[in-house]
Design a protein that fits this description.
The relative contact order is 0.12. This protein has two domains: 30 residues; 103 residues. A hairpin with a 2-residue loop joins strand 1 and strand 2. It is α+β, with helices and mostly antiparallel strands and 157 residues long. Helices cover 40% and strands 17% of the residues.
Amino acid sequence: MALMDAPEYDEKKDIRKRNLLIATGALIVLLGALAFAGFFTGHGWLFMNLPAEHRVNTFLSAVEAKDFNRAFAIWNNDDAWQQHPQKYKDYNFGRFQVDWSNSSDYGPITSHKVACSLASGSGVAVGVNINGRRQPTFIWVQNHTHTLGFSPVEIEC
């Protein structure tokens, strides 16, 4: 191919290529900003812990409303728990109700605020300030079963 046979310059193709490079760069910067924003605000990289935080928030809202049947269903991720209460003999509804209705640590739960969360191993530890206390209580959300429990992990919020 001689110089005289070279293809003609395509300005539209060049503009399209430039715009694609700019958009890719902007997307990478935006994704990085979202990743760090989630981490620095305490919600996990890319806000990955928000579903677990929402689950704990829903649970504590049910406890505040004194709807312990619904709260126990959220705790065990089993809406039909009353059909098979023997499945929960280790931590039964009676014990659950005593722990969450008027505990010696908090009294009746009237308010809560999710303070922070940390994904660790097979779940997420969610720190919650209950009744305005500064020291958070940690609730564990299991990733695969979506059940709640008392957290084995405590984090600095």
